[in-house]
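[recover] target loaded
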């Protein structure tokens, strides 16, 4: 039996893709790069194994930007939608903007990362763990 899949796309629909479940994680990221790339207080990413992502149309419209010494962010050339993020710190996996999906994935957000970088105007009303520090993944005191 084949694993379930979920489709996604950019805003204009030029770039379409499919992901095979299961996911690896789902997080709210508050790092400043995510804030600037998405124009938002934070972004919700989920991760899957790289081989579980298939671009079904518009691959030539995907632009990759080297956002750090270890990571790239991909977006649609036509509409600018943020789509993917990958890092040499986590080889073999790709992060995907959850809001680009057309249906539910197999998990809800589990944690806030880089929480101490959060925008001071963002108010969080959930009880999810909050991580930060130099790695963005260290437990923070409440």
């Amino acid at each position: 039996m084949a694993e379930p899949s979920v489709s996604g796309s950019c805003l204009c629909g030029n770039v379409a893709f499919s992901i095979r479940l299961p996911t690896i994680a789902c997080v709210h990221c508050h790092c400043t790069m995510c804030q600037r790339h998405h124009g938002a207080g934070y972004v919700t990413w989920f991760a899957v194994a790289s081989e579980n992502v298939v671009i079904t149309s518009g691959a030539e419209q995907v632009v990759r930007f080297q956002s750090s010494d270890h990571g790239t962010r991909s977006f649609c050339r036509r509409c600018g939608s943020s789509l993917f993020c990958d890092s040499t710190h986590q080889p073999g996996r790709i992060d995907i903007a959850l809001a680009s999906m057309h249906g539910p994935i197999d998990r809800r957000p589990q944690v806030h990362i880089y929480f101490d970088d959060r925008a001071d105007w963002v108010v969080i009303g959930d009880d999810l763990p909050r991580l930060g520090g130099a790695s963005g993944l260290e437990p923070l005191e409440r």
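[recover] notes: The mean pLDDT is 95.
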